[in-house]
């Protein structure tokens, strides 16, 4: 199919119709626009159009109700769905209804043009009919920020696959919630969802927990025990805190992923397995690989689809929606209805949330349970966030949570650095300045740790000794403090 084609656009907003008409026409497409679903369906039924772009909410019909008819009449016709609702369920419904792509409003025009070009250029194969039970009230993930829209769209693409997913993110960002969403809205939703936290199990018991054991396999094994792989058969196995898995268990897990079978501890008969693996970590696995603590080949087996969850600091605009969501959950559990004044919400949006969404949920539950008033004041929020101490806005802005990877710490630094310039951008040459700022303390730390021994420091850094000497000279490092 040609990269150029006839595009059918349906949207109730005249401004959007005009923008799309002009942009698509400019790159060589023939465009037909309408403000109602009936006209769009008439064009599709008549065999017109090579691609459809439609809003979900139309004056005469919801696009999700029309999509099954389009798929039945013309299963090869790609449909791009747009919506201002911007929720997780909107992305899922678009995927399940057979949409080629889902775009939240307001959309990026360049991105939309890229989607159109890709859809027209690639051969289209009709998707198999598959719709889960509608759960309009279910909202496993909350937020309408741009960061969450990217997550929703990625999840929607993953629902009808069995690809292994690696979820990374700070503690409290909702990694298990995302894993459950992948299962409950995916093709394995009728199977079991089994979760295991590697950090919560003694190292010498992890293999038994994963693969089960035979009677007498070790001291205390009085009976045969099924492992998590067997319990998750036909469903999803969620391996949380995968970075804490000991090396021996990593080797066995790699073998399962490669061969699709395993043996119980103390067993000899291979057992075939059919599970989808979703792993999660709050650690930098690449750093663990460099330290010899995580197998590189296992990392690539698990990291088929990487999915990074944003911290709450990166999506502070979602805080009002999250607060309402947690208050509603509290009401269902018998707690009194509450609301937070706008000033309190603003304080919450400026807070760094080292514990992320989990910390926010705990705060909202505490507010609902401990305060009698229906309206929570800004003073109460300030006191809760500062633990009774007057918060220092400057200190809060520079607070970096503990246990962050180097990459995560750099993200914090860069966010503050860009914010310090307001609406402007930093001066050119940022890349070299950042590299220089990182390189000097790295070399200095290596020299300090090796007590000034350049041969050991070069080996530690993985550099040639002459290269290290040059860096020491160029970076102006002349005093080495003793590590002892």
TrEMBL record:
Q: Which Gene3D superfamilies match?
A: 1.10.8.60, 3.40.50.2300, Homeodomain-like, P-loop containing nucleotide triphosphate hydrolases
Which terms in the Gene Ontology molecular function aspect does this entry carry?
ATP binding; phosphorelay response regulator activity; sequence-specific DNA binding
Has the keyword Translocase been applied to this entry? no
Q: Which GO BP terms apply?
A: regulation of DNA-templated transcription; regulation of nitrogen utilization
Provide one Gene Ontology cellular component.
cytoplasm
Question: Mind listing the UniProt keywords for this protein, alphabetically?
Answer: Activator, ATP-binding, Cytoplasm, DNA-binding, Nitrogen fixation, Nucleotide-binding, Phosphoprotein, Repressor, Transcription, Transcription regulation, Two-component regulatory system
Q: What does this protein do?
A: Member of the two-component regulatory system NtrB/NtrC, which controls expression of the nitrogen-regulated (ntr) genes in response to nitrogen limitation. Phosphorylated NtrC binds directly to DNA and stimulates the formation of open promoter-sigma54-RNA polymerase complexes.
* Entry-linked PANTHER family: DNA-BINDING TRANSCRIPTIONAL REGULATOR NTRC, TRANSCRIPTIONAL REGULATORY PROTEIN
Protein's name in the database: DNA-binding transcriptional regulator NtrC
Q: Which organism is it from?
A: Aquamicrobium defluvii
Q: What gene does this protein come from?
A: ntrC
């Amino acid at each position: 199919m040609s990269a150029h084609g006839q595009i059918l656009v349906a949207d109730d907003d005249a401004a959007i119709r005009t923008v799309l008409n002009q942009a698509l026409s400019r790159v060589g497409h023939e465009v037909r626009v309408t403000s109602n679903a009936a006209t769009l369906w008439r064009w599709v039924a008549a065999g017109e159009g090579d691609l459809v772009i439609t809003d979900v909410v139309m004056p005469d019909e919801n696009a999700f109700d029309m999509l099954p008819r389009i798929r039945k009449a013309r299963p090869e016709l790609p449909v791009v769905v747009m919506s201002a609702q911007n929720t997780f369920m909107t992305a899922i419904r678009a995927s399940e209804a057979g949409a080629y792509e889902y775009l939240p409003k307001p959309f990026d025009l360049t991105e939309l043009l890229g989607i159109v070009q890709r859809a027209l250029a690639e051969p289209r194969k009709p998707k198999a009919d598959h719709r889960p039970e509608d759960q309009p009230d279910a909202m496993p993930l909350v937020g309408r920020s741009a960061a969450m829209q990217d997550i929703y769209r990625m999840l929607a693409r993953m629902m009808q696959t069995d690809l292994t997913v690696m979820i990374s993110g700070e503690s409290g960002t909702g990694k298990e919630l995302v894993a459950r969403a992948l299962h409950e809205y995916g093709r394995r939703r009728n199977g079991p969802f089994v979760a295991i936290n590697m950090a919560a199990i003694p190292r010498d018991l992890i293999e038994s927990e994963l693969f089960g054991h035979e009677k007498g396999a070790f001291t205390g094994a009085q009976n045969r025990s099924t492992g998590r792989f067997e319990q998750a058969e036909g469903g999803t196995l969620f391996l949380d805190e995968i970075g804490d898995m000991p090396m021996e268990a990593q080797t066995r897990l790699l073998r399962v992923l490669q061969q699709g079978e395993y043996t119980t501890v103390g067993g000899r008969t291979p057992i075939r397995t059919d599970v989808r693996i979703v792993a999660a970590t709050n650690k930098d696995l690449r750093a663990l690989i460099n330290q010899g603590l995580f197998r590189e080949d296992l990392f690539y087996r698990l990291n088929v689809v990487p999915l990074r969850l944003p911290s709450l600091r990166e999506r502070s605009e979602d805080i009002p929606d999250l607060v309402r969501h947690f208050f509603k959950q509290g009401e269902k559990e018998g707690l009194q209805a509450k609301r937070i004044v706008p000033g309190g919400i603003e304080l919450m949006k400026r807070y760094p949330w080292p514990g992320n969404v989990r910390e926010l949920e705990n705060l909202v539950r505490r507010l609902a349970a401990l305060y009698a008033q229906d309206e929570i004041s800004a003073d109460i929020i300030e006191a809760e966030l500062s633990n009774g101490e007057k918060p220092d806005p400057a200190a809060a802005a520079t607070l970096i949570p503990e246990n962050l990877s180097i990459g995560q710490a750099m993200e914090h630094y860069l966010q503050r650095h860009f914010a310090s310039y307001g609406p402007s951008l930093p001066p050119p040459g940022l890349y070299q300045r950042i590299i220089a700022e990182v390189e000097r303390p790295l070399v200095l730390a290596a020299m300090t740790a090796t007590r000034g021994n350049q041969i050991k420091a070069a080996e530690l850094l993985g550099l040639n000794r002459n290269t290290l000497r040059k860096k020491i000279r160029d970076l102006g490092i002349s005093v080495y403090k003793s590590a002892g």
